[in-house]
Amino acid sequence: MFLEIITPDKKVYSGDVESVKLPGADGSFGILNNHAPIIAALKKGEIKVTDSHKVVQNFEIKGGVVEVLGNKVIVLAEN
Fold first, then answer.
1. Coil, strand, or helix at residue 38?
2. Which among 32, 15, 24 has a CA at the least distance from the CA of 68?
3. For labelling, which of 5, 29, 40, 74 has a CA lying 20 to 30 Å from the CA of 51?
């Protein structure tokens, strides 16, 4: 699936990933390939991204929103 993490200043990440773990407003949750469509609020915390080569990257956010639709994940983050 394809992930974009965007802040008001810049695009922080863009690429194919295997999984994403997000700090949801009601608790953390993960997204895998073929996830059902969802829009959710995010709280302050860490986004954990595992790319297609099993490399893990972490991104700190202060909150935001995530949209998942058709194997595309877009995170609009406050940073």
1. strand
2. 32
3. 40
**Domain count of the fold of the chain:** 1
| CA gap 66, 25 in Å, rounded | 11
CA angle 10, 33, 5 (to 5 degrees): 10
22-68 residue pLDDT tens: 999 999 999 999 999 999 999 999 999 999 899 999 999 999 999 99
Q: Of 24, 27, 10, give the one whose Cα is nearest residue 68.
A: 24
The pairing of strands 72-78 and 2-6 is parallel
The pair of structure tokens assigned to 47 is: 């986004």
Q: Which two tokens stand for residue 6?
A: 């965007």
Instruction: Pull the structure tokens for residue 72.
Output: 């595309």
Q: What count of Cα atoms within 13 Å lies in the side-chain half-sphere of residue 36?
A: 2
Please give the residue range of the domain that contains residue 26: 2-78
